[in-house]
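Table 4 source record.
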Amino acid sequence: KLSEHLLRMNSRDRIHVLRLRPDRADVVVPAAELTCAIMETAGIELLQIPYVGLRDGILAELGAKLPLASAK
């Protein structure tokens, strides 16, 4: 339903209504369709979306693996 809703909206509406950045407003539709296809193929019914980006998660993961600066 969400993919269909996004598809019915134009880019300007996605920016205004969903408060998306302009560079995200165009890619959110194919991203939602791809996510739905993957979920359907994998048999996943629920997907939890964190409020942080992928970059934040990668940086946190990398930071957890770094030795502490005081351990020199």
